[in-house]
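Limitations
The structure tokens in this dataset are predictions for the assembled complex, not deposited experimental models. Users should treat interface geometry with appropriate caution, especially where small molecules or nucleic acid strands are included. An illustrative entry is reproduced here so readers can see what is and is not provided.
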Amino acid sequence: MRKYFRAMLVTLVAVVAMLVSAPAASAEEEAVPRADIAAMMDAVPGGILIDADHAVWPSTGLEMTSSAAVTPYSVGSCATGSVCAFSSANLGGSKLSWSTCNTFTISSSFTVRSIADARSTGYLQARNGTTILATANAGASANVFGTVTNVRCVS
Amino acid sequence: MSPDQEDARITRRLREIDPARTSLDDGPPEFLRALATRLERERTVARQRRTRRRWRIGWAVSLASVIVAVAVALSLNLTVPPAEASTPTPLTFSAPAPAQEVIGDAIARLSRDDGVSAPERSVRMVAWGIVVEDGVIDDGPVIPQVVSLDWKADLSGHSRILKARTESNPGNEVGRVLPTDTVLSEQMFAVGEFSVPSAEAPAQTEAGVRELLTSVGMPPDPTPGDVVQAAVTAMELWTLSDTQHTELLKMIETSGKVESLGRSMDRLGREVLGLRVHTADGAATETVLISAANGRIVGQERMSAISADGIPAGIVIDYRMWDAEKEQG
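Predicted assembly:
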């Protein structure tokens, strides 16, 4: 019986090791530079890729960060790149957030009292149907007064 | 074992049985040799059978192990379990008196002269709210917020929301809520920037309070839920006077069905009386917490009444507790 347990143990260890090593192996894959980093590395020889968003040119001391990694600060607790609706004024209480830009229906369980747009461009509207109650520009927030049924993100 | 060795072994065994058998010097009889060969062949077949059985069991155990391991791994890595909302435990109430009596007693306490005599452009709250990111409910720990707002008639001001922590309390008493250094949101408003329907202090009359609530979104012919929602909005901008709280309670009472829940201890350890109303669409309930000490509305909790959009019924969606000066640190 001891042989069976040994066989089972060896198999389990092998399977777990295989599963654990798979993500590690993929994490060690070479970083793919963002388009602007890749373009600069093509144009200026001698660049060393640090990660997808950063590269350096040791001979000249040039350092480059991708524009994708340089985005505005978050707005309150609304994460960078997201749009958010809050149940309290001034970005407090419950938070609904979306990392994509679209028109989102507000669940009837929620009451929206403030909104934030933590993107670098565009704006976010709090609306009742198609009536605009408040607008938050990119990188800003607004309090809302009235019943919000949807928020509309505009790029 | 070679045939000669096998012959010698058989001869030796026969001599042990009958030492007088001298004819064995020529080797064992043929039938005994054949019998020994047959027995040896059968032993070999039996050994091979046992070996094959061991391998079959070993492979079966190994295969089962692989299946179990893969199933566990897949369940951990590939399936996304439905998010379980981590929300505060709903308050429990006892010994409800009729809503009319609760409101009447509160108004009597509010009529004393030791409370807030005029509306203030300042709010001190402890709050919490559910977080839903891209449709997924955050299942992290319940972390209250310590909220402070100060603004002026020129619409300048400052708001700050700090992450709070709740001190553990070994007894049954509610742990004290204290602010941490983590700023969740901070806004400075230059002159004219603070967003409020009117900078004018609301009049301390029924008409003044109704005008205030209407300005923040209360519809005509409001339901009790509409009144409470608008009152919450107004009380996030203003600390209203005791007289205005009296008007708020009257408006809630006269707007429709109000359920009395009884006495409880709020999340700051204050004795309160609960009144519950439904939102206009029935999707949620609003519980208004009235201070047993002074009659002011010191808390509000919103709970889901139906399961919708991934939010199960019967959970706390958000809460606010006003007059929370002690918790500001």
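Some entries come with short summary sentences. For this one: Chain B is about 35% helix and 25% strand.
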